[in-house]
Amino acid sequence: MTQTPVRPIPKRPLTLRDVSEASGVSEMTVSRVLRNRGDVSENTREKVLAAARELGYVPNKIAGALASSRVNLVAVIIPSLSNMVFPEVMTGISEILDDTELQPVVGVTHYKPEREEAVLYEMLSWRPSGVIVAGLEHTEAAKAMLSAAGIPIVEIMDTDGDAIDAAVGISHRRAGRKMAQAIVDAGYKRIGFLGTKMPLDHRARKRFEGFTESLAKAGLEVADQEFYSGGSALAKGREMTETILSRTPDLDFLYYSNDMIGAGGLLYCLENGIDVPGQIGLAGFNGIEFLDGLPRQLATMDACRVEIGRAAAQIIADRAANPSAEGKELVVLDPSLDFGDTLKRLKKL
Amino acid sequence: MTQTPVRPIPKRPLTLRDVSEASGVSEMTVSRVLRNRGDVSENTREKVLAAARELGYVPNKIAGALASSRVNLVAVIIPSLSNMVFPEVMTGISEILDDTELQPVVGVTHYKPEREEAVLYEMLSWRPSGVIVAGLEHTEAAKAMLSAAGIPIVEIMDTDGDAIDAAVGISHRRAGRKMAQAIVDAGYKRIGFLGTKMPLDHRARKRFEGFTESLAKAGLEVADQEFYSGGSALAKGREMTETILSRTPDLDFLYYSNDMIGAGGLLYCLENGIDVPGQIGLAGFNGIEFLDGLPRQLATMDACRVEIGRAAAQIIADRAANPSAEGKELVVLDPSLDFGDTLKRLKKL
DNA sequence: AATCGACCTGTTAGCGGTAACATAGCGACA
DNA sequence: TGTCGCTATGTTACCGCTAACAGGTCGATT
Known about the structure:
2 copies of one chain form a homodimer. The first copy, chain A, has helices at residues 16-23, 27-35, 42-55, 61-68, 85-97, 113-124, 140-148, 172-185, 202-217, 234-247, 259-271, 305-321, and strands at residues 73-78, 103-108, 130-134, 153-158, 166-170, 191-196, 222-228, 253-256, 281-283, 300-301, 330-333, 337-338. Chain A is built from 12 helices and 12 strands. The longest helix of chain A has 17 residues, at 305-321. The termini of chain A are far apart. Chain A is elongated and about 85 Å long. In chain A, helix 1 packs across helix 3, helix 6 (113-124) packs parallel to helix 7 (140-148) and helix 8 runs parallel beside helix 9 (202-217). Helices cover 42% and strands 16% of the residues of chain A. In chain A, helix 9 links the parallel strand 6 and strand 7 (222-228). At the A-B interface, helix 4, helix 5, strand 2, helix 6 and helix 7 of A face helix 4, helix 5, strand 2, helix 6 and helix 7 of B. Chain A binds a DNA duplex (30 and 30 nucleotides) through helix 2 and helix 4.
């Protein structure tokens, strides 16, 4: 048998009316006190607060939102929570929203367009104040919903394509090109690519496209590739590295589509006495913080995740504060290349 | 200027009335069609669906929830998203809830009780169908809110203490004892502990308590300790290991409060030619998957994270389906010890 | 003393749905 | 043919709160 200490268990959830009766003022006045809106005498304010606390009243935002047609939620739609990158984006978002009334609500799509569509529908049905969604690729229906929602929409992570409304991110094509350029400049020639099989990870695809494009300009092409499916993991990186190197032993550079498998590859190379970056150079993508502790620092490219989260949230917050704002902001961040210890600096000085 | 392809931009968001007018039936009938509730002729059903699709109507759950006093949300309140363990719990939760109408909504507390209280208040004000909250320790106000909410509450991760309603987890005291036992059995004597400074991580504290308690029974005590603050990271593990070993060089075992810093320690030891597990044994806590790729497998104890998520969600789902259900379920899972390559098996055979 | 405005409180009418209860149509069956 | 029972649809009354407006009080100002 459950027992609450002070008062009998409420069978019916508490409403403003209960607080109003307990404090002897109208519901409206209670509402004003609880929202700090309008003028209320210090005297009644205290009476009301005391009553509310005493009863353990928690306002019903559903009713409040319906009546005021204001909902302090921001829908955040991302592909995954399990790979460190989106949690960092969330950090940036929370950092900004914590200073406002707004609250993020997360939906996860697992990189499936139809899931995205469903999650989006679900979220929009709560009439949030804004949407932050990863990527520029969506189903037609999803695009239609977003356009019609009449709220600020920020597409994040990627800027290679057309945004519905605002967008914040980096150019993954450019990131791929930049990395290829650094590799070429360092004098590597036999380049292998290791990435995910996921055809729906558009950003990984765009990086790869930029990468090959830039190699092509230097008269090079990817000498061998290896793909995997499933989450990014150290063990996968090891395996793949072993596979690709036994198939094509003369590779002198390995470009990984994310830092995690890159780190696995690094560990593999070190254990097998491969000279990194002399014999083989390595690079990943993301700038994941925890890799700091590895025996050697993997070359990588920072995807500006926290910064993207911040900028996106800021756009939503600004527009929520000032609904007449212009819109269509485009923020393109520049990913910075970190050579680490696994990519030689220039060849020719 | 924004352009939606088909129809003019709706200035006023669409309502049931719009769909009702467009399809020539009453709002009620539209509502029935959209929810698959009650009898509607195939003919009108199609008419209505066509109209809804055509207009791009998205139902307003706020109004629906208010009218039906049913909200298909489950509040999930966790300390952090950035350390791999809670994302895994989320995976378990989603796995179960995906088969129901229910939807998880995540709130993050950053291990701060007052944040927890605020987040809880915020979430309860949406009148969710249930709450899953990490830990058994809450502020008095939070406990009062939870008790009074009149919805299923599942406290997860920990079972060392009193639950408000249902609970699913492992005993961290027991986990600490079990690990200590294995270490003692393997013949280690000079044991160091490396953990978080966070006094509010009650589960880490309980593990430590169980650990020392069990050592004490064997006439041992922790020979040295080292604490850190900030996120778990490989680099931190390295540093701390270096620090503790230079201060107390004769340690023969290092127990880390999580796998991440344990992995950092492992890398440090390997690089410095320390014989693991001969000269020094190592163990962490959590069974984090990605560590699979490390040069050597760290001894650890599985915290049953996915399973905890599943069980908790199942309790909420069951009670949502059958509101008269009993309640007060207590699910205690048994963490399994993985010796890995860093903890000697028995000493005496 | 009359007027005004600042302050405080209450009243009314929804917000956009849904539960619950009509009502209409229609074939079946005695 | 009247009545029953079923399906298909409509009507009404809220759900709990807030916007908007309508007082009432009271000291200050003219």
